[in-house]
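Onboarding guide, step 5: your first structure request.
Type a short instruction followed by the sequence, for example:

Predict the 3D structure of this protein.
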Amino acid sequence: MKTSLKFFLSLSFSILALTGFSQEFGMASYYADQYHGKKTASGELYDKTKMTCAHKSLLFGSIVRVTRLDNNKSIEVRVNDRGPYIKGRIVDLSGIAAKELGILTIGEAKVKVELLKKKMAAPPVKAPVVVTKKPAPRKEVVLTDKGNTKKDNFNIEKGDVKQPVVKTEMPIVKTTTAPVTTAAPTSYNQVAERVTRKNYSDFDLYSIKVERPVKQGFGVQVSSLLDYKNVMRLVAQLQESNYDEVMISVEQNDAGKTKYKVIVGPFADKISAKNALKKLKRKKHDGFVIMLENLVH
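The system replies with structure tokens like these:
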């Protein structure tokens, strides 16, 4: 009995060691419709009609089962993107996958993620075997003065023993020219430091990716500011609270001055935006839910 138990525990441990992942618990969310057709981290385009998901670490192509803990409903999806990067969330589902799991109206749900099929690495490509053919041995032809028309090869005099004169060939010296090597361009794989309120500075180098999202869905407006420095400080504070999805609405006020609305989002529906607002208030941020299509610039 003890031997069987030891064997079972050893087998179970071996399976976990091979997969590196068994199951994970946390919150599941889903992509907004505005991401349909955009490139994912795997290189393929996001399609809201396919059963796919984003995960932080599993290999692209892995198949996982996502099970809601409140009603035990489950689906199977394929990993083709990275994320989510909001604290507490462990998987982002495509639109159709979220519909199948029944979280389109509630925005997110507590789930269990189980690995069903791990994507295996492609086998190494074997180098082709190069067969070098040896040159055929040259036949040594011994010529005499009889019938010989190549007088350059012999020096024959009457009365002498007719011996072939061996023609001495100069050895061929092969010169090898060293290939010209071009130095490979330097690759700058810089590791960016996450900026928060603690390490933010008004004067520094920052990496910013500017995109124009579709004005659809909802957001949580956190503040309206006139000074761009204050905008940067607020974004750093939001990042400290694990909010990386931040938008800036640049508008003009009644006095003709530029104002900046700092908005967390986007969210697919109003319920998701309200849930985000509750979390923001727990982290001492204030704000209110807005419809993105009502923004005027």
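Each response can be followed by summary notes, for example: The CA atoms of residues 63 and 117 lie 5 Å apart.
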